[in-house]
Amino acid sequence: MAYHPTMSPSPSVRSHAGPRRRGWVIAAIAVLLVGGGAAAWYVVGSGDGDGDGAAPVALGSAGRDGVFEFVVSEAKCGTKTVGTGAAAATAQGVYCLVGVKVTNRADAPQTFDGSAQKVFDGTGTQYTSDTGAERQANPFSWTEAIVPSETVAGRLVFDVPMGTKLTEIELHETLLSPGVRMALR
């Protein structure tokens, strides 16, 4: 019998490409579903923490994200250095120091991550905290656990361009929590 290239293979010869290909398709779908879910969580969860798009919490009032309750007391900008001596930190622009009280409302000690906090100016430009400068501006480390019902007061430090006018701070329980927006004026 002559071989003809247009003939299909014998039914006794099975290709194993089908199950492998099916496995890759299932894996690709799983990745898309997980990625899509994460993107949806980010879009929905990146709001102001109260879920309804309300105005930021007023300066001096309590706001909450997760187990932490926050009260912002003040925001002062214009400082070029924090700390003293050789350990002093120097801003590239100027430092804005935000006075904040953090209360742990959980039943177990929780760590407040200063690096998860953000401030915004009137144009919506976001700035993250300068954790090195925060070590100089506070008598404690923000990375120490806060015991249940304890309130810790300190300053978050942000290095911003000179002339920046901050309007809001977004405080977070964790890096991935939705956060709560609080007014700085």
From TrEMBL:
The entry's keywords: Membrane, Signal, Transmembrane, Transmembrane helix
InterPro entries: DUF4352, Immunoprotect_excell_Ig-like
Alphabetical list of Pfam families matching this protein: DUF4352
Domain of life: Bacteria
Transmembrane feature ranges: 24-44
Ranges for domain DUF4352: 59-175
Signal peptide: none
Name listed for the protein in its UniProt record: DUF4352 domain-containing protein
